[in-house]
Amino acid sequence: MKFDIPLDTKSIDQSHVEIFKSWRSFSDVFDGAKRMRVVTYCDSPEFILDLFEDLDDLESLEVVVGDVSDYRERLIDKPDLADRLEQLRSEGKLVIYLCENKEVHSKLYLIEYDDSVLEGEADDNAEDQMTLGGEAPIESEPEDTDDGSPAKVIVGSPNLSRNAWSNQTNMGVVYDTKTDSELYEEFEEVYRDHRDSYNSGGPFLEDLSEQLELSDDDREEVIKLYTEGRVGTQDELGEVHGRLADHIDAEVETVDLALDGGTDSDSEQESEVIEGEVEEDSTENDPDLEEAPQDRITLSLRGYEESTVDTLSQMTDFDATVSNDTLTTTPDAFQRYAEQVFDVPTMHLNEAKDELKFHYDGTVYRVTQPPSNPERVDEALAEIEDYFATVDNYGNSNNPTAVKAHMYEALLWFFWAPFANRQAQFYREHGINLDKALPYLYVFGESNGGKGTFCRFALSLISGNRVEAPVDADEIGKRKVRNLRSAHTSFPVVVDDITKQKVNSLDTLRNYWSGWTGETAYPMFAFISNDKRPGEWFRNRAKILRFDVNFMTSHQGEAEVNRLIDTENPIFQWFGYEYLNRDLELGTDSDALREVRAAMQDLYEYADRPLPDYFPTEPAEQAYDTGRERWRNLIDREDVEIAKDSDTLQVTFPESMNFELHEYKRDPPMTVRIEKRGLDLIIKTPDEFFDWLGETTTGDPREGFLSRARSLLKR
């Protein structure tokens, strides 16, 4: 658009080019102004407010902001700033317009003064000023008119901002004129074109004014909600879930997880429960008494994608409302919604307070607590060992010690999983690949191997007997895995009775941590299966444990296990306290559970209880490797041959073992490279293979197999 603004101005419209070398030299032109209208590229709402309040004579200020980024985000968590800006906007004193559909870099200033302000004004910067025609600036007074007030127009490079003036110089054309001049009217048209062409939503904060007018809530509450808008993370749904969890943590009283006498405060909790029961009974007897309503949580959903709001709308099934870009819910409604959508409850770590919080049945539970006394810790550890003792009492196994070690290793993983995000943050700081450093859990074994029962036991320990049921395998797919990253929970997702083919198909687990920013908690996954080891990519990312046991059908054994599962055992709460008081360290190996083992050993030491001989002081899958035993036992088969093939070993199996070759191929760790060729397994890295096999005891006949295999490589 073209505007006919003459460069050869009339005598009443003095003009010059001025170089502004500092913010102070530029802001001097605002002194004495009573009205300003500005087009500028970037600034902040704080700066505009400060400028308005610093100029004593200024009665009104209009600003057109050319930066099209989300200006409202600059009010996030600043309700006092929004309150003051809205008041001034409603009074017509300070009005901000946003260029919502285009980025505008124009800079234009229309400044009006009282009649007396410019009288006798000396030009202190004369040596920095040049007339447009190259002549000296005119020193005579502007001709007076009857109606116009003194005014200045500045067109040039300066932004309405203090930023960058320390190393920046700006230049502008300055017109000294009157408000009733043709020149000023032309520039007013330029200003209005900027304001009206690029703004379609009206003045900034006009929507807040409308909400204040329509709402019955207090002004403070409406503004607080308005300034809670989204902060622009990668995962919108996860962001809202995190905000809800934080609000619930802050607004709902936190109580200790019921520990059956586990802490000094337990007796008080028990008395509170008893009192609550009495009150509940009295409520039933008196219909005039009603149960107190739950705390209601209100969040702004302004700015979120429609798909995010649609998902959150599912909360309306549980006494929540979603309307006018606002979500209102209760802790119980949020928790029931989370379990419906994600099949897991909310659990997350507040690292600032070193507390693990667990949301369940409308309550916020504090999980991590210091041990109460050595005797109680000893009892809790004994109860865990009683569970493992069911392998001896009711199970059939060739190696009960190995089975119990694998069970204890699995339990350590369950204790570690709620804190995995803490370890993820630590690993990321050191540039470690999270997808390979934070292991999933895969437990396999025959039917009646106690795998599902163990999951009930482990889940009950970490939830205070509130969660026992795992997730059904039919509920898990790629999309479900992807969505669970938005759940904002560190409670582990335990999938029971899954096939290895289904696990292999969940390739979203390959790069599960790739988009993690630390703002949202990600849950870890445990898979329980009757199938043996899944595909290679998953084995690279998982702790694989075998429950090589078969439990006899026994009512007595079933009753014993159920008793142990139902017993309230506070060991996880005490473990969490010990674990969070340990610094994470980078070890010489890849054991993700190093600090977990140490924390559990601290509890044994505190209780003055000896470690059981099966306690996994190193990863149980390494200390009790059933695959290694299977390879060592090959010497018992006379029909298995071993030969040298260049720098590799060739192990030839009989045709009767054709279906077992795949299992033998998967047994060694991934550092041992093995290729299958018909009935042969080609071991490409013999040194790593022998390191894995290790040494057998002196006199063990299997040593002959190992010696024979090693001697082949020396020929």
What this model shows, in words?
The chain is α/β, with parallel strands linked by helices. It has an eight-stranded mixed beta sheet with strand order 4-3-2-5-7-8-1-6, with helices on both faces. It has a five-stranded parallel beta sheet with strand order 18-19-20-17-21, with helices on one face. Strands 9-15-14-13 form a four-stranded mixed beta sheet, sandwiched between helices. Helices cover 38% and strands 17% of the residues. It has 27 helices and 26 strands. The chain is elongated, with a radius of gyration of 37 Å. α3 (79-90) crosses α6, α13 runs parallel beside α16 (451-463) and α16 (451-463) packs parallel to α20 (555-566). The N and C termini lie far apart (89 Å).
Which class of secondary structure composition applies to the elements?
alpha/beta
- Proportion in helices: 25-40%
Low-pLDDT regions: 122-128, 133-145, 259-292
Q: Assembly type of the shown chains?
A: single chain
Counting DSSP H or I runs of 4 or more residues, the number of helices is: 27
End-to-end distance: 89 Å
Rounded radius of gyration (Å): 37 Å
The neighbouring-strand order within the major sheet is 4-3-2-5-7-8-1-6
Largest sheet: 8 strands, mixed
What is the molecular shape?
elongated
Give the percentage of residues in beta strands.
Answer: 15-25%
The average pLDDT score comes to 82
The total of beta strands comes to: 26
Organism: Haloplanus litoreus
Protein name: Tyrosyl-DNA phosphodiesterase
